[in-house]
């Protein structure tokens, strides 16, 4: 009876944690959208173009931060609390250094003010370094604090930009304020990730969830090995592959289709992104369990993501006209029949991304290789075989997503079949 009550409390806390992380994600995305909306109203076209280009570069430069978070989270879940401070600093410093070294070339190639590209390096340092503390909180399954930290990161990253735009300042001063807020957020992140008052349960069979840990820990730390640069580079490569394949069809549509058709594809791609990112909170919550080889958690997560995808695809099939009317307006209603296909692409990539995270968390080599192959196949198919229409590119994208999902499932579950004892083999 006591054990049942403990499990019920754990489920309730996990549900609360999932809701908190979902709210934090929504707030993060809302702040990200507020910046271009304000910029369009407060800046000249030339200034807005420069700021948009810098923000796009910042998104690319932030990839090592996401890789650092995944690597730290998986390491903490497997090996417990070991120092990640130096590696986090090195990752942030190297990324900022590369950005700084590229500043003169970016200034010339993109016709940007030098001050913007120099400030980009500083903001990159803060963004990447924040991945260390986010990873620690995620790996320790302190999801309520993780949600708070995600909001802190978002405010630090975009708050200065919003304030600067509201005050009517130019791109340089706006980015300077963003740099300051990003750096000021770091001590608060360190405080949130502080282990004070938190003890990981040593024996999950006898320990209940802690106040900061809304989920039961499925396994105790396994080893005491240190986190190395190779694991971070592997996670960064996987993150970059996921980012690349999720935008590859948009880039191909822009290159291969007439201007009007590429714009229509961009409207439909909003449904793809919605189906892709809607269940990502599941991947975030389950990653520590994946690192511990918890097959049941993986199956539950996969079932939830599949269920979410089915609901979104069916909803798109029923309400395709409404979806396109909301996203793009009446001019795009002729594409309503393609709505379930756009949603299916995102739903399949949601499955793929969860399985890629599983491969990263369990230390597999080249975890994102199928994604790079799928991206190459998508590019070749769309360029050489598909009709130069929205449907032609969309069919190529759907085929690439389906093949990537099949291959990733075979890699993940095929390893289980090869290891009937229930342990994950080392790569």
TrEMBL record:
Q: Any stretches that span the bilayer, and where are they?
A: 48-75, 87-106, 112-134, 146-167, 173-190, 232-252, 264-287, 299-320, 332-356, 368-386, 392-413
**What keywords is this UniProt entry annotated with?**
Membrane, Transmembrane, Transmembrane helix
Indicate yes or no for the key word Transmembrane.
yes
Q: Would you say which domain of life the source belongs to?
A: Bacteria
Please report the name of this protein according to its UniProt entry.
Polysaccharide biosynthesis protein
Write down the species.
Answer: Micromonospora andamanensis
Organism ancestry = Bacteria, Bacillati, Actinomycetota, Actinomycetes, Micromonosporales
């Amino acid at each position: 009876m006591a054990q049942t009550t403990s499990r019920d409390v754990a489920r309730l806390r996990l549900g609360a944690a999932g809701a908190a992380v979902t709210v934090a994600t929504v707030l993060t995305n809302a702040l990200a959208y507020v910046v271009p909306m304000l910029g369009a109203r407060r800046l000249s076209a030339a200034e807005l173009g420069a700021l948009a280009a810098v923000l796009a570069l910042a998104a690319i430069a932030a990839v090592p931060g996401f890789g650092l978070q995944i690597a730290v989270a998986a390491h903490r879940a497997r090996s417990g609390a070991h120092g990640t401070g130096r590696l986090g600093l090195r990752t942030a410093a190297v990324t900022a250094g590369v950005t700084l070294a590229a500043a003169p070339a970016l200034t010339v190639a993109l016709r940007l003010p030098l001050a913007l590209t120099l400030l980009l390096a500083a903001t990159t340092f803060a963004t990447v370094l924040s991945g260390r503390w986010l990873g620690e909180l995620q790996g320790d399954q302190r999801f309520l604090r993780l949600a708070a930290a995600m909001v802190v990161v978002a405010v630090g990253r975009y708050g200065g930009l919003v304030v600067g735009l509201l005050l009517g300042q130019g791109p340089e001063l706006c980015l300077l304020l963003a740099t300051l807020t990003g750096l000021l957020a770091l001590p608060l992140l360190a405080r949130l990730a502080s282990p004070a008052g938190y003890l990981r349960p040593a024996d999950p069979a006898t320990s209940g969830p802690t106040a900061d840990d809304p989920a039961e820990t499925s396994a105790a730390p396994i080893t005491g090995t240190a986190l190395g640069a190779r694991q971070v580079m592997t996670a960064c490569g996987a993150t970059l592959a996921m980012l690349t394949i999720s935008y590859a069809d948009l880039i191909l549509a822009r290159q291969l289709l007439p201007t009007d058709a590429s714009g229509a594809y961009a409207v439909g791609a909003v449904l793809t992104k919605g189906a892709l990112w809607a269940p990502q909170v599941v991947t975030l919550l389950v990653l520590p369990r994946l690192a511990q080889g918890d097959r049941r958690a993986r199956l539950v997560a996969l079932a939830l993501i599949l269920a979410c995808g089915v609901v979104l695809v069916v909803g798109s099939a029923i309400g395709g006209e409404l979806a396109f009317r909301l996203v793009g307006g009446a001019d795009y209603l002729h594409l309503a029949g393609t709505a379930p296909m756009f949603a299916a692409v995102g739903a399949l990539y949601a499955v793929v991304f969860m399985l890629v995270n599983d491969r990263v968390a369990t230390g597999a080599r080249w975890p994102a290789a199928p994604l790079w192959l799928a991206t190459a196949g998508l590019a070749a198919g769309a360029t050489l075989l598909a009709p130069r229409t929205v449907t032609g590119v969309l069919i190529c994208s759907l085929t690439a997503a389906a093949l990537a999902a099949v291959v990733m499932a075979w890699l993940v579950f095929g390893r289980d079949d090869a290891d009937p004892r229930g342990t994950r083999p080392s790569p």
